[in-house]
Structures are given as C-alpha cells and as structure tokens.
Amino acid sequence: MSELVEHALVQRPDMIAAVANIRSKEAHISEIRASNYPKISAVGSVGYGEERLSLGRNNTFDSGAPTFGGGLAVEFPVFDGFLRRHELSAAEAALGEANSQLQKSGDQAVREVWQAYTDLRTAISSEAAADALVKASQEAYEAVLTSYKQGFSTYTELVTNETKLTSARNSLFQSRSAIHTAATALALALGDLAQPDSSPTIMRIHR
Asked: What is the crossing angle of helices 83-149 and 155-190, to 10°?
C-alpha cells in the first residue's frame, strides 16, 4: 500500500502542479532577495587602432593593431521605501500557502488511493466468490437435468436450478464489472490515467 501511495504522490497531476507551484514561489523569493544585493557584471570592448609614422616627405608608415578593454561594473540597489521587504513578506506568505496546498493535495491523494484500493480488493474477492457459485450452480443444474431426464426430478426443480445458475452468472458478470470500475478509479487516484504506461500498476494489483 505504501508503494501505491508513493506512486500517487509523484504521478498525480494535482501533486505535480502543487510541487511546481512551490518551486515557482521559491524562485520568486530568490529573485527578490537577490535584488537587495549589488549586481556585478563584466564589461569589455574590442576595437582596432591605427597609427601613422612620417619620416620625411616620402617616408610614411602605417601600422595598426587590435585593442581590447575590460572591467567590472557594479550596480547598487537604490532605496525603495521598503518595497522589496514588503514584496518578500508577500512572497513568503504565498510560499506558505503553496506548501499548505501541497499537504492538502497529499492527504487527499492518500484517502483516494486507500478507498480505491479497498474497493478493488473487495471486488476481486467478490469475483472469486461469484465464480465459485457459478461452478457449484452449474454442477447442481447438470445433476438435476440428468435426474429430470431419468424421471427422478420434477420440472419445477429443474427450472429452480436453472434460475439459480442464471442468477449466479449475473452476479459473476456484475463482480467483473465492479473490478473494472474499481481498477479505473484506482488508476485515476494513482495518476496513471495521465501517464502513457498506466496498465502495469493495475495489473500487478489485480494479480
């Protein structure tokens, strides 16, 4: 059961959304806190410098070379009247609400998985009982049919056993339908319906 719960906590769309919401709130808080500190960035430039040297009327020489420049730029945050402080408080409150929602979603997931799992196990047990009843009813009907053909049983007894067999078969059909319904509910509770490989989990439980 604990394996199913762990599976649901990482597969369910509502849990995935709740975790993503927390990550978003945490990232926003980090951005606000970072804005309180100076920002340091590297700056640089690349160019080409030329130089002409004249040694008389007919002796002129041109030369050139690339030029490089670099340094650091520091940007200090200006006073904003405690706006960032209030923004940080609001962001931390939003993170608290997001964590609370994650807890609620987790509790809901556990309840739904437990209920769906219980319903599925009950349906499987009911199917086994219904299958045994069908086999017993089939044997009883065949025995009465043979006896009726030999003149030892009445037509009423034959019809009664046939009715019991039909009822047993209907119960078996209903129990198998209940298994399908319960398995679908469990797949939904586990979050498998939102995943392409949902069948293995349900099949392991069914076996």
From this structure: 160
